[in-house]
Amino acid sequence: QTERTLAMIKPDAFKNMGKIINAISQSGFLISKLRVAKLSKQEAQEFYAVHRGKPFYDGLTDFMSSGRICALELVAPGAIRKWRELIGPTDSNQARAEAPGSLRAQFGTDKTYNACHGSDAPDTAAEEVAFFFGPGRYPGKCDLA
Ligand code: CMP
């Protein structure tokens, strides 16, 4: 049934935003919300709080606060899984081997610089949509410098 997910075009792929939005549209998603934003280090730490303590947490949050991102709410039947299939495996090198047409294969570099993010479940999708689009989120949060 109709579902929503939070998609993010990460700083490394921001320059390819047009191509990625085209791929999203061609795949049959409705783009219901869209916002260009810039995360502070603290906001990146909050967004990825579930990964706090992992060895890649500091590098991940440095990267995610290094430039502009595009956050999108995507709506489609099975949107969460559908978007994760379009982006491909977390590691862009693995994506090039296993899903060469995927967005991470085309626009990412490795496990950290992997072009796109997608929510992994309905509860995290709701939280992540609220992170960018909930009440009081703009202006006031993730504002452009
Ligand atoms: P994302 O879908 O945004 O969700 C968590 C992110 O952590 C993931 O994409 C990667 O960018 C990053 N990540 C996950 N596992 C690793 C890892 N082993 N090494 C470095 N970065 C990772």
TrEMBL record:
The protein's name: Nucleoside diphosphate kinase
Places the protein is found: Cell projection, Cilium; Cytoplasm, Cytoskeleton
List of residues binding ATP: K10, F56, R84, T90, R104, N114
Family: Belongs to the NDK family.
Residues of the active site: H117 (pros-phosphohistidine intermediate)
Entire protein: shown range: 54 to 198 of 343
